[in-house]
Task: structure prediction
Amino acid sequence: GENVEQHPSTLSVQEGDSAVIKCTYSDSASNYFPWYKQELGKRPQLIIDIRSNVGEKKDQRIAVTLNKTAKHFSLHITETQPEDSAVYFCAASGLDAGNMLTFGGGTRLMVKP
Amino acid sequence: EAQVTQNPRYLITVTGKKLTVTCSQNMNHEYMSWYRQDPGLGLRQIYYSMNVEVTDKGDVPEGYKVSRKEKRNFPLILESPSPNQTSLYFCASSSPEAGGPYEQYFGPGTRLTVT
Result:
C-alpha cells in the first residue's frame, strides 16, 4: 500500500518568514495530494490540493509543488502569520482509489510573533 | 448547515465493554471514513465506505467494525475495546466529483479512553 512520510515533524519560524513542509510517497499510482490544517482542538480542514497533471498550484499565501518523478510534494507558506500556527498533514491517494487517503505524520508549525 | 456529527465527543470506558461511536452527515455524500489520530502517527484510516452496504478495510482495521445501512450514517463499533484503542477518532465524508478531488469533511472528533 501507499506510505507517506512528512518532514519536519516540528517547524518554528518568525512571523513574516516562509515555511516549507515536505512529503514523499511510495505508490507511483497516487495522483491526488491534499494538504490539511488542524488547529489545536479542532478538526482537520482542507487548505489546498494538487493533482498529478499539475506541477504547482497557488492560493494566496500558500502553494503546493509536486514532483512526480521524485515522488515528493511540498507545501509552501509565505509571509507567515501567528494564525498559521497549527498541525499540517499531507496525504496521497489515487483518484481511482475511492476514499483511500494515506496521511503523513504531521508537522507542527509554530509562528512566533 | 452542512456538517458531519459524531457522538459521543468524549468517552471513558473499561476494557472489554462494547461501545459504538455514531457518525452522521447531512451532505448526501457517498463516501465515509473513520480515522484514528495518535501523536506522531498522523491520521490512519480504519475503515471506509463508498456507498450503502459497501465497506472496506483501511490501514488499521483490527479491533473495529463498521456498518453502512443508510447513506447518512456510518457507526464505528468496538466489540471488545482494549487500552491500545485509546485515541482521538474522526469520522469524515466526501463525494466524488468528475475527475476528483475528494475533499474530506471531518467530524469534530471523539476522544476515547480505554482503561
